[in-house]
Amino acid sequence: MKKRIRNESGFTLIEILIVVMIIGLIASLVAPNLLGKFERSKEEISKAQVEMLSSGVQSFVLDAGRCPKDLSELLTSTDPKWRGPYLSKQELPKDAWGRDYQYKCPGEHGPFDLYSLGPNGKLDEKIIKNW
């Protein structure tokens, strides 16, 4: 006859369920805070890039005496007064949501308007702008 050992170690189903519930509660408290910070960090990155691009446009205007036709002129131009490139990297950045920055010269809010459509992808109060 085989004897069963009653002192087997292990977790019961109840113990496992309690641990899973505790982990779920902790995750439900932490996840919204992390997602909010992630979205805010995207906005901060886009604000910094708008400022960098605005500085490049202003440098171009000081050198050439006119606004660039589009942002690619910050990297290459046939203008004889051009002293660029005006961006440290040899490519135009996209905003944090993977879209192109919007540029208009002359601008409606200043000499030029430069903005990202933000998280919504629409021209609304959430845009990230240089004015």
From TrEMBL:
Q: How does it sit in the membrane?
A: Single-pass membrane protein
List the Pfam families.
N_methyl (PF07963), T2SSG (PF08334)
The yes or no answer to whether the keyword Cell inner membrane is present is yes
What are the GO cellular component annotations?
Answer: plasma membrane; type II protein secretion system complex
* Keyword terms, alphabetized: Cell inner membrane, Cell membrane, Membrane, Methylation, Transmembrane, Transmembrane helix
**InterPro entries per UniProt:** Bac_GSPG_pilin, N_methyl_site, Pilin-like, T2SS_protein-GspG_C, Type2_sec_GspG
* Sequence ranges assigned to domain Type II secretion system protein GspG C-terminal in this UniProt record: 33-123
Domain of life of the source: Bacteria
Q: Which GO terms describe its biological process?
A: protein secretion by the type II secretion system
Transmembrane annotation, as ranges:
12-35
Chief localisation class? membrane
Subcellular location per UniProt equals: Cell inner membrane
Which family is annotated?
A: Belongs to the GSP G family.
Record NCBIfam families: IV_pilin_GFxxxE, typeII_sec_gspG
Instruction: Provide the protein name.
Output: Type II secretion system core protein G
